[in-house]
């Protein structure tokens, strides 16, 4: 019996951990308890030395000494301050007006703003709750199907999971031992493609079921010109001019991929903001405007979040700042933006700090528990057992990716993304590296897959967030005066299913088209390292002169 326990302690530990998690015990305490229990068992059986657990304090101190994880509280604080600063409300109102009477316009606005909030906040809860409070009543008011409305809001909020500066990408990079900047750059294009797929689904729904996603009625459209026009041509000209200016400024640049997009976007928003400010000054003193009201409003609303994107992602991509420093600048920018909008208060900062402290403590507790578990698991060569198990799967890289993604998809029903990142990723990374899989590509694939953990009925956290702000009782709409029916939990769950399918499609696309991620490597060197020769020229030293010996 003793020999059996010693030989199979790794799989027994793993099964024991899964049972504790399925019983509902918190992940941090389950990990720590399993690690300590089996460490004591191993000492008693003679598998470990009596002083085995003396290595534990150093591993726990390594968690506290991890500079990369410092970025998590900064990005969390930034997202929470932005959520309360009114930026989401301004964006949704303006972008919703911009799409106007187009069928599905509000759904497009939610996807667009969700992607923009994801690139500035990085916090799923903040995005889902903000859009649920602001957009859901408007979409219900104008006759949107409840499943369509709730699904697009929940899914767009989860874009904060994969679009940088995502918190899970920070954890993923740390667990895989890779650069956070590379992980951000690799996930940038897949995040934008996923946003486009969400918008494409909204387009199909509006095309096949027009009544499920109607456009706004003409009387609900604001920002009219004196002649009754909407001034969209002015906005179009400003947009094209900004794109052209950004392209001209980057014409001789050697940057490619996400770096090129973010830096050229920065030049474009500077140009648009300058034009809008000049237009505002001239209109204030002369009454003449060369930009329409819609163009000016859209510019003033779009510039702050876009500038924050550059402040955070741009500085990381071009190598000026580390992710921690980028997060600190983003948090400072969020405070400045809140003060500029006159929404910054002591109570707002206190709430943001408390929520940040809770999330940071949650992450550290899970990580400490994971270190306790991994100490014992690695001590019984559990990592070798997992590596052999995964690398021996039929099909090589393809078989490995299919099995791992299926496993993560199933586990996402029960575990949230932090628990998956701290428990599963350290076990999968070494096997993927041994199979020759690029770890940044692998991390982005799993990041998109783990995004489904927010959308899985009935345990998806995004669905819980939306349920907390969606109307549970009949109410009277404050604009139309009509009696509105509540949103049921079943409607929220059914609305999420198509977007879970889209996320699975996105996983397949990232696997089939790795170039969406691999652009982070930039230009590939054409130099063969085996042909490099380093020749050191001979050094001629002058003759040594020690002088005459002393008498």
Summarize the structure.
The protein is built from 24 helices and two strands. The protein has about 550 residues and is mostly helical.
Description of the molecule:
The chain has 551 residues and is an all-alpha fold. It is 68% helix and 1% strand. It contains 24 helices and two strands. It has helices spanning 2-7, 9-22, 27-45, 56-64, 71-84, 87-99, 105-120, 124-141, 146-157, 167-176, 180-208, 232-249, 257-286, 293-317, 323-340, 346-379, 382-391, 396-411, 417-423, 425-434, 439-450, 461-469, 489-512, 515-518, and strands at 475-476, 483-484. It has a two-stranded antiparallel ribbon with strand order 1-2. α2 (9-22) packs antiparallel against α3 (27-45) and α7 packs antiparallel against α8. The longest helix is centred in the middle third of the chain and has 34 residues, at 346-379. It starts with a helix and ends in a 33-residue tail after the last helix.
Structural class: mainly alpha
Overall outline? globular
Number of helices: 24
* Number of beta strands: 2
Name the beta content range: under 5%
Alpha carbon gyration radius: 27 Å
Question: How far from one another are the termini?
Answer: 86 Å
Question: Biggest β-sheet: count, sense, barrel?
Answer: 2 strands, antiparallel
User: Can you give the mean pLDDT?
Assistant: 82
């Amino acid at each position: 019996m003793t020999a059996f326990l010693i030989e199979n302690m790794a799989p027994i530990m793993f099964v024991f951990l899964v049972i504790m998690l399925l019983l509902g015990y918190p992940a941090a305490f389950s990990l720590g308890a399993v690690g300590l229990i089996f460490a004591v068992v191993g000492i008693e059986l003679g598998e470990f030395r009596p002083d085995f657990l003396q290595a534990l304090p150093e591993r726990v101190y390594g968690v506290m000494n991890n500079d990369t994880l410092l970025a998590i509280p900064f990005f969390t604080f930034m997202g929470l301050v932005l959520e309360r600063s009114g930026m989401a409300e301004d964006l949704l109102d303006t972008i919703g007006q911009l799409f106007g009477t187009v069928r599905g316009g509000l759904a497009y606005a939610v996807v667009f703003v969700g992607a923009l909030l994801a690139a500035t906040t990085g916090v799923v809860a903040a995005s889902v709750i903000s859009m649920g409070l602001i957009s859901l009543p408007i979409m219900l008011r104008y006759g949107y199907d409840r499943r369509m409305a709730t699904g697009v809001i929940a899914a767009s909020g989860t874009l904060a999971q994969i679009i940088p500066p995502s918190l899970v990408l920070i954890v993923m990079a740390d667990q895989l031992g890779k650069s956070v900047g590379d992980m951000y750059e690799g996930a940038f294009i897949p995040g934008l493609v996923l946003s486009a797929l969400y918008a494409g689904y909204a387009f199909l729904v509006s095309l096949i079921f027009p009544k499920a996603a109607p456009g706004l009625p003409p009387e609900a459209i604001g920002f009219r010109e004196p002649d009754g026009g909407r001034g969209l041509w002015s906005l179009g000209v400003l947009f094209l001019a900004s794109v052209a200016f950004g392209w001209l400024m980057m014409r001789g640049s050697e940057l490619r991929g996400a770096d090129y997009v973010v830096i050229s976007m920065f030049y474009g928003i500077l140009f648009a903001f300058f034009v809008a400010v000049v237009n505002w000054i001239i209109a204030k003193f002369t009454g003449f405007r060369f930009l329409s009201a819609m163009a000016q409003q859209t510019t003033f609303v779009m510039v702050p979040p876009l500038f924050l994107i550059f402040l955070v992602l741009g500085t990381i991509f071009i190598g000026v700042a580390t992710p921690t420093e980028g997060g600190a600048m983003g948090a400072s920018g969020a405070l400045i933006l809140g003060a500029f909008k006159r929404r910054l208060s002591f109570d707002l900062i206190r709430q943001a700090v408390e929520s940040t402290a809770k999330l940071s403590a949650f992450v550290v507790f899970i990580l400490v528990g994971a270190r306790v578990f991994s100490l014992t698991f690695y001590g019984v060569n559990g990592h070798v057992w997992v590596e052999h198990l995964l690398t021996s799967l039929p099909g090589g890289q393809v078989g490995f990716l299919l099995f791992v993604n299926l496993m993560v998809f199933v586990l996402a029903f029960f575990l949230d993304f932090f628990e998956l990142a701290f428990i599963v990723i350290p076990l999968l990374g070494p096997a993927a590296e041994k199979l020759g899989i690029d770890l940044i590509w692998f991390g982005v694939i799993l990041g998109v897959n783990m995004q489904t953990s927010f959308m899985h009925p009935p345990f998806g956290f995004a669905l819980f967030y939306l349920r907390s702000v969606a109307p549970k009782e009949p109410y009277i709409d404050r604009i139309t005066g009509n009696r509105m029916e509540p949103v049921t939990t079943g409607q929220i769950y059914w609305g999420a299913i198509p977007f879970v399918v889209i996320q699975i499609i996105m996983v397949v696309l990232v696997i089939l088209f790795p170039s969406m991620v691999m652009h982070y490597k930039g230009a590939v060197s054409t130099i063969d390292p085996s042909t490099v020769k380093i020749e050191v020229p001979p050094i001629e030293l002058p003759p040594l002169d020690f002088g005459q010996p002393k008498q």
